[in-house]
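General statements about sequence and structure are easier to judge against a single worked case. In the encoding step, the backbone of a single protein was reduced to a row of integers, each denoting a local shape. The record that follows shows the chain in one-letter code together with its fold in token form.
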Amino acid sequence: MSIFTFLMDLARKEFKIESLSGRDRMDFDRPAGLYIHIPFCSERCDFCPYNKVKYDREAAAGYPQALERELELQGVKVFSSLYIGGGTPTLDMDLLEDVINRFSNSVDGELALEVHPADATVEKLERIKGTGIDFVSLGIQSFDDRTLQKMGRKRQSAALSREAIERVVLAGFDFVDVDLIFDFELESERTARDLEIAMDYGPHQISVYPMMRFTGTALAGTKNDPDRELQILEILEERARKRGYSRDTLWTFKKHGESKRYSSVSREFFLGLGTSASSFNGGQFTTNTFSLDEYYRYLDGGRIPVRRAIEMNTFQASLYYSFWALYGGSLDQERLRSLFGEPDIRLSGLLELARKTGYLRQEREKLVPTKKGYRELHMIEEWLTYNFIDVIWTELREEAANRAHPGSVW
């Protein structure tokens, strides 16, 4: 049995998704990052699986106050970072500034924001910098018009992509990430060209994600080709190395010597606020309602708007933590023990087997994925996405559609 097959069987057995209607606050006895989801969009991109609500100024007006109310109910006072995503958080700058002003004083770390290329104007970038945002992730996706059209990126063109990355890199943020998406159905050279163009502008980090075929998107019903995707990623890794970038996490490349990282998905522990936001405290993984109307109703009634949860024992939590640590480039075994105690024999045996069979290598107290290990992590991440994340999101999206005003949810 391969490690991939073993982990699939283990995940099916160990992790169960529960349906909830609200829950008590989550306890955080260790530093946590804060994630805020702003779901509003003006257009629907065909590939996008994230929770999005058609922008309406009146419906959006109460969102900052609702986020603040949710935090009051959760009771967490200080955070190690703030990441704001969407949706399109840069669509309504007044709303965005209100959100940042309400939460930035609670953060002792980076203030990070997703920026849509169409919103990377000189005026908006100046306003973003004025809020204290110091990390930005620019959602370029591609510098190729045909690829953008396939994704349904209605507010973007190849020319706008180049203008946006130039403005963002020159704006003077402490850290700039550029997001790209590739599809195995496109020729690999087109994807490599996107990476080359991004590197020409010199951002600190470039994230290159495979096109996932989520339920509810235009690509639903089609399948990924992991072997082809891995071939493309290895081409990209070689191109990146020659240009002074090295692989930092499963799907990111970073400038040599750069110590910082833009990473909203591999924080150790995090509290999520807003529709569809997820949280993990070392014992529970929860996801909020996708319905904006329901989100407001829960908070008006003094209830935390959680609709799905995975409850974890120590073994399950340490397994979850170990996967995301390896996704992020290394698992510090001493840190693992300090958080969860001595690893369960199943986890310690699995990690030792992965080391002996060449998926991981030992670097002092850290286990680091090898090339072979990154290939396996790619397979595992895609499997987890479809068997857990897509399941949760699909159920919550369908529930939201049944509760929403016509036309307000895509």
In short: The chain has a mean pLDDT of 93. The first strand starts at residue 18 and ends at 19. Residues 290 and 398 are 9 Å apart (CA to CA).
